[in-house]
Amino acid sequence: PIIRREDYQAPAYWIRTVDLSFDLDPAKTLVINKMTIERNAELPVQSLRLDGEDLNLTRVMVNGEPATFRVENDQLVLDALPDGPFTLEVRNTIAPEKNLQLSGLYTSGGGFFTQCEAQGFRRISYFLDRPDVMAVYTVTLRADAEKYPVLLGNGNLVAQGELDGGRHFAKWHDPFPKPSYLFALVAAKLVSREQKIVSRSGKEHLLQVYVRAGDLDKTEHAMNSLIASVVWDEARFGLPLDLERFMIVAVSDFNMGAMENKGLNIFNTKFVLASPATATDADFANIESVVAHEYFHNWTGNRVTCRDWFQLSLKEGLTVYRDQEFSQDMAGEASARAVKRIEDVRQLRQFQFPEDAGPMAHPVRPEQYQAIDNFYTATVYEKGAEVVRMMATLVGRRGFAKGMTLYFQRHDGQAVTCDDFAQAIADANPGSELAERLDAFKRWYSQAGTPQVTARGAYDAAARTYTLELAQTGTPNPGQPHRLPSVIPFAMGLLASDDGSALPLQLADEPGDTGTHRVLVLAEAEQRFVFVNVDREPVPSLLRGYSAPVHLDAALADTALLTLLQHDSDAFNRWEAGQQLALNRLLAALRGGSTQLDAAFIDAMRGVLRHPTLDAALKELVLTLPSETVVAEELGAEVDPARIHALREGFRLQLAQALRDDWVWAFETQAPIGGYSPDARAAGQRALVNLALSMLVLDATASGDTVWPGRAYQRFKDATSMSERFGALTALVNAHAELAAPALERFHALFADEALVIDKWFALQAGAPEPLGEGAGAVFERVRTLAQHPDFTLRNPNRARSLLMPLTLMNPAAFHRADAAGYVFWADKVVEVDAFNPQLASRLARSLDRWRLLAEPYRSAAREAIARVAARAELSDDTREIVTRSLQD
Ligand code: ARG
Ligand code: ZN
């Protein structure tokens, strides 16, 4: 069934309180759910329909008396109910150990865990399982004391004690009304790291991170990240921790990254556990940002939640924006902030752009869905965050903080919409560009697709004017006749073409106002901006900091891009210029132009690498070519993944060879000094050194030299941190098969008991660049073999993803094969996983979203594989929605 946004209706009943009790047993858990309910007086009298899924219903009582009820398509229906408030008691049993879809209450590693967003609560008990029904929960857990010594729930612990038969209990009460998707419980054998903190108000809070006994030494970074998050939210937005106790629990079987359950966040172990020996710098950074993300949801998501699931970006876009800002603040200096911004934009282009151009394209606030779990997307999250960022740009930093304050004044404790949020930000900033154009701005919520902005500039030396013409286009949503213009904050500056110095910006119609950086607002299909008193020929620096999520076509000449790369005060645009230079060359080569990199490009890259003051992290980003996916999207049709791969690898080798001495210099001089610290600066230095090593091994392999591969192997063996060790291993796996084999074996033996490291071991091999010529096809064959490895299982989502995603999503040349074997493998795995975990299967199903971009024979073969999955009689709603949309024109 298709659910539509326009069909929203308020609930016919309100559930005010919930008293839940659980007798936990893996095979058969008894759930007793006592609710106090009131009719919604604003609607006509109607039946009460409670959602339920895979429940064994044993009893239904109204006001303490057995009630008449029926069960109709997964709903418990009660027709005749008292007019005033009443109590409803529902008893049912469930089988957590059989719950392999990991939604609702399930077992993992001998413990009990829950995941209720979006619709998992109905798999625990009958309920009005929708976010606008908010209730106060009291929860009693009973379980074997030996097997499950730790019993956790939302809110505060109000009682605990022993029971007969070796069992014990704990009773939790959460004073904040919440929707069912924020419910959580944990019963397991765990230990915790604890920390007491005192917030500004003087209140004391207990922070806890719960993990399995052997993992306690890997929780320090998560705890530090949590403390930093609490401090940051209070300082930046005045939002304090509102709970006596805040808990994070790590679980190794988890469909997503983490979940913001009130007071009891449940996390994928991947986003909690880290030690220098087992986690890379990227892992440390991800933990910091996911811990922050979930913590920030406590206000943006929990205190103010979504009215319905179409509003998902209300909490997700805003919370991603907040975690991005947090990570930037944690990174420190301006250049490190820019690095974080570049990483976020890279993610957007790698995952959200393809989504927005493919069969799953949807607005930030979707209009319809079949399975809501399919809409936890890069569009709702990352593009949603860009929409919030644009609002912040239009009202300014202080204006945005004022808007947040008004948002909470108006809506604390409510379930609201994206409109309510935008209105609060605008109303707090009367006269701002946002307030003046709010309706037009909100098209960002309703129109899918990435707008295309064309920028053309002309300098008139005689008149001393520079005219910038901006135009925007885009494809309309299905069912909409044409696309209306978006409101695009367009940050820019002008650099002198001779020495790159910043030129003053003075618009013809705004005399007197000068500065060297400003935000134009493009709100029409076409607009012209005339700058006056421009003394020197300028190079425009456009869309600085990536001020709007658009495709920009500025058609800048190489000379202009080189000026920006060298001189722009906006570090983001320096990187962007370098990417554009590389992309121009890749695209030209694909269209039959030269496959040899020119001296100007090589010299520019050398200039960046050797630059005396640029951040190592920024250097590493500039010196990394655009990904094969980004190149394919830019090409837009007739994509031959093998060709893109061959050309890009060819360029990489040329960079390795031409800058050989410079890579040696970087490797030998740019490493951080001192012991391991995951801070942004040291991480950036390690990233650059790892890139240098990769380039040196690549160059050596091509020339038959053995020194650098040997050094890489040595470094792999002697490394003192995972970042170093994995960097060296990557260099070997990507370019030196002979030494890669023993290194991989050694790595596996060393970390046999570290599940998250074994995930890396699988991922590295599945994501390795396909050899050119002779050995082509080896990576895919290796993945097929690894799928039979004793350590491999589809049951654990991290492990399944570790092998399947790097191949199908990140390694186009290995996945797309003329013999279609990759697609057959994909279809088999989608079907196999779908039988027990639809959410995981439907993610995997999306790897072929962009099949229409492909050239033949890939295109037909890919369509056939999708059609084969779609033809299955038994398929979850989740996966069916993906493959059906994929095949629609
Ligand atoms: N709200 C969680 C987060 O953003 C993600 C929950 C995802 N759940 C799902 N069924 N897709 O941190
Ligand atoms: Zn979230």
UniProtKB/TrEMBL annotation:
Residues 19-182 form the Aminopeptidase N-like N-terminal domain. Keywords: Aminopeptidase, Hydrolase, Metal-binding, Metalloprotease, Protease, Zinc. Transmembrane segments: none annotated. Residues 222-430 form the Peptidase M1 membrane alanine aminopeptidase domain. GO terms for biological process: proteolysis. One of its GO terms (molecular function) is zinc ion binding. It catalyses: Release of an N-terminal amino acid, Xaa-|-Yaa- from a peptide, amide or arylamide. Xaa is preferably Ala, but may be most amino acids including Pro (slow action). When a terminal hydrophobic residue is followed by a prolyl residue, the two may be released as an intact Xaa-Pro dipeptide. The keyword Nucleus does not apply. It holds the Pfam family DUF3458_C. Residues 559-888 form the Peptidase M1 alanyl aminopeptidase C-terminal domain. InterPro entries: Aminopeptidase_N-like_N, Aminopeptidase_N-like_N_sf, PepN_Ig-like_sf, Peptidase_M1, Peptidase_M1_dom, Peptidase_M1_pepN, Peptidase_M1_pepN_C, Peptidase_M1_pepN_C_sf. Its cofactor is Zn(2+). Residues 449-554 form the Peptidase M1 alanyl aminopeptidase Ig-like fold domain. Aminopeptidase N is involved in the degradation of intracellular peptides generated by protein breakdown during normal growth as well as in response to nutrient starvation. Belongs to the peptidase M1 family. This is Aminopeptidase N.
